[in-house]
Amino acid sequence: LLAGPDPATVVGDVSGDDWEAARVALIDRTVGFAEFLAARGLMPRTDLLAPWARWVTPEFEPRRHDTYFFLALLPGGQRTRDVGGEAAHSRWAPPDVLAGDGTPMLPPTNLTLRQVAQHPTIEQVLAAAAQRDPSRPVQPTAEPQPDGSALLVVHL
After folding, report:
1. Three-state SS across 81-141?
2. Residue 99 pLDDT
């Protein structure tokens, strides 16, 4: 959780039952994020997010998405865990492992992990993020092939 009681801190351990109940309430939308933050006296720490990329679904897709990918350091005192949600499964591993081990994922996620994995340290990947322009969307296109199929082309 990238939030804290002031602009210089973040909350620590958020694994208790009360935090889990709040997370479930956020997912089922019985509580809004602003209401959640206000009830706990927290403010979002967006300064801890490093934008990496923006992906837009190809125009030929019937369901369209415009998605940003961000990087963030895990706040001190917080623990990783599977909190459920829209993923079929989750696990924590280095980006090069996730991108190359056959874990099923959509191409934008896989390509983003491969890009992040090119930087061997957290400091280097955050420095690389500062040099990127995430406002320029990555939008795959389809190029017709002579056999009638289409090749999905991604310009990074």
Report:
1. CCCCCCCCCCCCCCHHHHHHCCCCCCHHHHHHHHHHHCCCCHHHHHHHHHCCCCCCCECCE
2. 86
